[in-house]
Design goal:
The protein is built from ten helices and eight strands. With 304 residues, it is an alpha/beta fold. Helix 8 links the parallel strand 7 and strand 8. Helix 1 crosses helix 6, helix 3 packs across helix 4 and helix 4 crosses helix 7. The radius of gyration is 20 Å and the shape is elongated. Keywords: Hydrolase, Membrane, Transmembrane, Transmembrane helix.
Length: 304
């Protein structure tokens, strides 16, 4: 009788743990949408409202094109596509992205800002932390190539940084990539850092969530591998930005990707900034780094 009671209790505990893991895993892939409650108008920027399909054509994405009036008429422009982080919007309010976009536009570059699937004003019902989002970036690249013949640079924050690397590895039209606080490989990253996002103890929940979630939503986190993707971008340049004090995504993720090809890649490690917090702490230095990278892209393109 006692063994039967123990067995029943064990089964109940297992069911509760599995139920919690399923619920939290579902919440992580279905985060509550944040509103797009700011506008380029507030920064003195003229916007063109745009929509375009993801390259897989399963969702329609919403964004802005900020055309620079400072592009010389005899020069082929560069369009910078901004890619936001997990559960955010095109605004990437931690920066804020519109402030950085204003500096980029004033320096003579077009900027495209958009919401990933299941974010902001875009369609979609699931967030896959790069697995499907890379198709959204590729859709943005397709739109630029069709509507504004120009070269392309990607700049991404956190998940958007890793996703930008994945997309650039697939698309030769991308001249270079800037990432801020990106992770290298999704599966190992989640194994080490999932409690940051789940707010649950590592054991037993992390292995349970990682076992259940891919089967539940049909994604393979092992395929979200920016560390391997940088080899397909090389010798095109990447600028990695990361704070040594980032507690959400350790800076060693960027260092590991940079170290694959330090002859073509750049690494700027900041201090005392939180996750995607380097711009807020050093806006002038951050902007100078970004504009110097874009200028280098432009000069290299013009000389080749």
């Amino acid at each position: 009788m006692i063994w039967m009671i123990i067995s029943i209790l064990f089964v109940l505990v297992c069911l509760v743990l599995i139920g919690i893991s399923v619920y939290v895993g579902w919440q992580l892939t279905h985060p509550q949408r944040k509103p797009v409650d700011d506008s380029p108008d507030n920064y003195g920027l003229h916007r063109e409202n745009i929509t375009f399909p993801s390259r897989t054509r399963d969702v329609c994405l919403d964004g802005w094109l900020l055309k620079s009036p400072y592009v010389p008429k005899d020069v082929s422009p560069i369009t910078v596509i901004m890619c936001h982080g997990y559960a955010g919007t095109r605004l990437e309010k931690g920066l804020p992205a519109l402030a950085l976009a204003k500096s980029i536009v004033e320096a003579g570059y077009h900027v495209l800002m958009f919401d990933f699937r299941n974010s902001g004003n875009s369609e979609g019902k699931i967030t896959t932390v790069g697995f499907l989002e890379q198709q959204d970036v590729l859709g943005a690249i397709d739109w630029v190539q069709e509507h504004i013949p120009s070269d392309i640079c990607l700049i991404g924050f956190s998940m958007g940084g890793s996703t930008s690397i994945l997309a650039a590895a697939e698309e030769r039209a991308v001249l270079g990539v800037i990432t801020d606080s990106a992770f290298g490989q999704l599966s190992p990253y989640l194994k080490d850092n999932l409690p940051v996002w789940s707010n649950l103890p590592r054991f037993p929940f992390t292995p349970l969530i990682l076992l259940i979630l891919p089967r539940l939503i049909g994604i393979n986190p092992h395929r979200v591998d920016a560390l391997a993707a940088v080899d397909h971008i090389y010798p095109r340049p990447i600028l990695f930005i990361h704070s040594r004090d980032d507690e959400a995504i350790p800076w060693s993720n960027s260092e590991g990707m940079w170290s694959r090809h330090p002859d073509a890649f750049e690494l700027w490690v900041t201090q005392k900034a939180g996750h995607v917090g380097s711009y807020q702490m050093q806006p002038e230095a951050y902007t100078q780094r970004v504009l110097a990278f874009l200028s280098k892209l432009k000069n290299h393109r013009n000389s080749s």
